[in-house]
# Entry
Amino acid sequence: MRSCEIFIEGIGAARAVEKLAQGGVPVLAAYVQKKGVVVRVDGKDREKVFAILRGSCYNGKNVRFSGVLRAVRLLGKQAGLLIGAAVFACAVLFFQSRVLRIEVVGSGAYYRSEVLGALARNGTEMFSPPPGDRAAVTAEILSLPRVSFCSLSHEGGVLTVRVEVSDDALPLAGGNLLIPADGVVESLTVLSGTARVSVGDRVQAGAVAVENVTAIGEETLPVTVIAGVRVRYTVDAEYAGSEAYALAQAYLDHGEIEGLLTEKTGTGWRVTGEALACAALNLG
# Structure
């Protein structure tokens, strides 16, 4: 069976291994280079790899087909590098099979604490496998007041629980929309309320992004905030353990990290880059 090697470059190119796995392309081998990562896939998956990378922040090039003999020679010359890459790939696949983040979405997202409780009672928490008995979890969530629909899906380490309620007249959340992290405002959507920040402003966590008032002429009246904000902030964190564990923990803590860099320290690995923190009130 012929395979092909594809050089992938871009910000955090090593995470392309995870992206390909999510897209259903088995990665036969992977090894990191200075400006990217080389992945080996079955020749029949070559076009699918480029389709997955198209439109992303990664670029694939330098396709090189190889047979069994070349693979053996490459293994002899770069055994240490390949073993390290294989360990990294295995770590990525392992963490993909675990729950790294839990997202509760839908009109019943305000039941987040109850959903987390139901998951925990059925043995699902951070770094655990996804729920084995989804029917039991779904039944418990459906027993909550007004809940009419519930579904669970697990992909790329993210367990998504969709909860919908049947009462469209439920009261909206009150209060102001607050800044979720220290950083720079990346985007701001305001359907109701008065914005107190603008895109590009440097802000601090806890500051008011959108206030629950509106001005009508010279009069200021209270309103319900319907708005969302995204803040770009600097990631600079150190984690004990292996590089693969540090990357997984950083993903858990911060989600997607742009300009991702890792540096070996005396006690573990330092992870730096930029990430987005999001907050919304009565929006979606």
